[in-house]
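Need AIM24 family protein's 3D structure for a figure. Predict it.
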Amino acid sequence: MFRLQSSKVLAVEMTGDAVKAKNGSMVAYDGDMAFKKLTGGGDGIRGMVTRRLTGEQMTVMEVRGRGICWFADRASDINLVGLQGDTLSVESSNLLATDGGLRTGTAFTGLRGASQGNGLFTTTVEGHGQVAIMSDGPAVLLRVSPQYPLTVDPGAYVAHQGNLRRSLQSGVTFRTLLGEGGGEAFQMRFEGDGLVYVQPSERNTVGGDV
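Structure prediction for AIM24 family protein:
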């Protein structure tokens, strides 16, 4: 069971089951726990191969046992997402922990690559269970509907779920509109029906100043 100990600390109550978490994110535990480092950023050979081809590194550990384990990373804000058989797409650097039974993998994001510039793929999580994602500041949850598509600064994008189509638009950014940008950059556009998580802070991106 996932719960927030605070806005920046995740507590996971375990009864012999397992949880997968970002390597090195465990800050304390109470009980009998075993830790195992996992290779690759997704389940199976495909996840490992695509990560290697794109140079994207996502080191994950498996924690199994009985008791309570606490996780945190760089004082980032933590957001809980419940999956009911659907899929969550998330930047690998924003993924903190998942229920052990959830499947992780990779998804193609386009020729400009993921928003952190780590490659052509982003992380997917699917199944039934809980996911903890991180954001730089409290995440904002935005609704996308067929009548109201959404355009997002790639540096602020964290994750999305639902029946959404994502596309990348190059040449114009929020800052270039204000005369502050430099070099080629792009925006992310979402159409369909679903939710998008954004953070109130921008990371550096492959597309230039955004």
